[in-house]
Amino acid sequence: MPYTKKYKIPLLWLRRHTSDRDFMLISSVLVGLTAGLAAVVLKTFVHYIHELLAYGNRLLDQPIWLVVFPIIGILLTVTLVQFFFGGNIGKGTANILFLISQKSSLVERHKMYSHILTSGITAGFGGSAGLESPIVVTGSAIGSNYGREYHLNFRDRTLLLACGAAAGIAAVFNAPIAGVLFAIEVLLTDITISAFIPLIISAVVGALCSRIILKEEILFSVEQMDAFQAYNVPYYVLLGILCGITSVYYTRMVHRIEDVFAPFQNQVYQRAIVGGILLGLLIMLFPPLFGEGYQSIKLLQNSHPSVLLEDSWLSFFGSNEWLILCFVGALALVKVFATTLTIVSGGNGGNFAPSMFVGAHLGFFFSRLLNMLQVSKIPESSFTMVGMAGILSGVMHAPLTAVFLIAEITGGYTLMIPIMIVSATSFALVKYYEPYSLDTKKLAQKGELLGRNKDLTILRILKIRHLIETEFQQVPAEANLGELVQVIAHSTRNIFPVVGQDKRLEGIILLENVREIMFKTEQYDQVMVKQLMIKPMALIQIDDSMADVMKKFDETGAWNLPVVDNEKYVGFVSKSSIFTKYRKLLIKTTEM
User: Fold this and answer.
1) 269: domain range?
2) Domain count of the chain?
3) Which residues lie across from 571 on neighbouring strands?
4) CB neighbours of 160 closer than 8 A, spacing ≥ 6?
5) How far is residue 161 CA from its own chain's centroid?
6) Is 224 inside a domain boundary?
7) Is 473 left (phi over 0), alpha (psi -120 to 50) or beta?
8) What DSSP string describes 57-97?
């Protein structure tokens, strides 16, 4: 890794003797190189697991192993996570977004290798999930820990985190432009022009690692693809709408399945077995769900959909064209179940490749259906490729990444116009029904997402529990004036909460309201605190959102308001503490 002792001394010398800009450029090369090599290691690891399990492609010819291997892979992954990584490794891009917004872009060190190991086993044994999210986490961890090792500030550390992610995506797909755009659209909420250069450098270095070491070229060649015809635009718009609807279905179904498994979070092995068995049953019916699914996409691209049905138990019903078409359409719908079951049962992977799988099958189904109904003669291979951009754009909320990724991995820049049409249409439709992407929806609901609307984002990040001031002197409800004066004498505040039994808040006393009477010693035993206290202008519940809190401050004009938890006194929240915390978070979010 670039921050190891071997490299640390010369890099420290470079940092002292070069400008910040030059050091960041050098760092972007090293982070990109390391993240690119990590992607190569992951892809090689998965390849050799496939080779080991296949025994020269003899073992995987028996359909039963397509069912058994994913279950074994999930159980192995769960065991590794439980015994070596404390039971939780923080999966997916959502975890990185959480660490950026809540943990100052500090990513745990083990994520530089834990996701390679666990996702490699999951995918190598046939888990129906992609490698892209794990490599994003791995690359992000490399960039973050590089920045931490050299004591870089939040802005530079976050930039290197994004550089690592960009390099990982670039290496996995051999698509440097898509890597840069992914980092900008998904990870970086704000970006300056100066940040582009390190991102580009890292992405190019990562892509070169893949191209030189693995000798990979274009993932889906489109040399024989039909040229774009303008009269097909209405059909591409319809495909975009269909992709948008399917993307909403994909996002909501993922969260519903996760909610079903949520109560069993602590029963890791039972969850792994149940989820693995359900996944195995799906693969029994739909063998193309085994693994990432890129081979299935290539079969559709080359117009060989009948091969997909060969090992399925559904082939018992025959293999006529309509059955094959329905099988392809069903694959587009059940892939979300297979991927989510893989992940929630304990496997490690992401929704990047599955989104492309769904898009390709949806695009082929749509175009083949129109051709079979003789509505029009449209190019099935083109619609297969373009469909990937539609679902990727809708599920990830990253239309630019989708457009350029599909263009780069197909070499099909001739398809740029239809890709843009489908991607934009799908994204616009999804954005209306799902304001947040699959990865960010739950973070946004919890107020843990650093978004582009900074004021709203900061209000969501702020929590009442972190702003409560507890140094206010409490006064017993049964106390008299003399006892109140003693409390005032030892306090530096001018508000005093009056509490009864079980710390129940009875009222408050303002110093300005008792200033005159507190010097009349003859009334110390006669006047009781209950006679002097007043009702607070408003009460803040400990679980109130910051939007509700600010509304109460605005309506009352108060500067301090008491906080209660089921009527029990907890402390006070002041406008000054909210504004101070707000300014700190605002500075943090504008450093990018």
Assistant:
1) 230-439
2) 3
3) 563
4) 24, 27, 28, 31, 143, 144, 146, 147, 152, 198
5) 14
6) no
7) beta
8) TTGGGSHHHHHHHHHHHHHHHHHHHHHHSTT----HHHHHH
Same-domain check for residues 372 and 322: yes
Which residues are paired to 508 by β-bridges? Answer: 497, 534
> CA-to-CA distance for 200 and 193, rounded, in angstroms?
11
89 in Cβ contact with 81 (< 8 Å):
yes
DSSP result, 512-532: HHHTTGGG-GGGTTTSBHHHH
- Express each pLDDT in 276-322 by its tens digit: 999 988 988 888 998 888 888 888 888 888 888 776 766 666 678 88
Spatial separation of the C-alpha atoms in residues 505 and 464, rounded to whole Å: 18
Q: Report if residue 124 sits inside a domain.
A: yes
**Last residue in a domain, options 439, 474, 495:** 439
Gap between the Cα atoms of 301 and 290, Å rounded:
18
Same domain as 269, residue 129:
no
Asked if the model's pLDDT at residue 166 lies above 80, the reply is yes
- The answer to whether 334 and 286 have CB atoms below 8 angstroms apart is yes
pLDDT of residue 196: 86
Pick the more confident residue, 393 or 589. Answer: 393
- Residue 314 in contact with residue 285, Cβ under 8 Å? yes
The answer on 198 and 102 residing in a single domain is yes
Does the residue 447 lie in any domain? Answer: no
Any idea which residue has 């995506």 for tokens? 169
> Could you count the other beta carbons within 10 Å of the beta carbon of residue 446?
12
Q: Is 137 helix (H, G, I), strand (E, B) or coil?
A: helix
For residues 97 and 103, give the distance between their C-alpha atoms in angstroms, rounded to a whole number: 10
Supply φ then ψ for residue 206, to 5 degrees.
-60, -45
Which of 428, 379, 386 shows the shortest CA–CA distance to 410?
A: 386
74 and 194 in one domain? yes
Q: What does the mean pLDDT of the chain come to?
A: 84
Are residues 187 and 329 located together in one domain of the fold? no
Q: Kindly tell me if the per-residue pLDDT of 41 is higher than 90.
A: yes
Same domain, 190 and 265: no
Q: Are 473 and 487 in contact (CB under 8 A)?
A: yes
Region of 90 on the Ramachandran plot (φ > 0 left; ψ -120 to 50 alpha; else beta): left
350 closest CA partner among 360, 358, 340, 364? 340
Amino acid at residue number 206: G
Examine the domain organization and report whether 364 and 302 are in the same domain: yes
Structure tokens that stand for 468 in this block: 């409560």
Query: For residues 270 and 322, is the Cβ–Cβ distance under 8 A?
Result: no
- Residue 316 CB neighbour total at 10 angstroms: 6
Q: Which of 390, 387, 392, 394 has its CA nearest to residue 431? A: 394
CATH number at residue 400: 1.10.3080.10
The amino acid at 422: V
Angle, CA 490 vertex, CA 485 and CA 496 arms, to 5°: 65
Same domain? 207 vs 234: no
With a cut of 50, say whether residue 137 has pLDDT above it.
yes
Is 218 contained in some domain? no
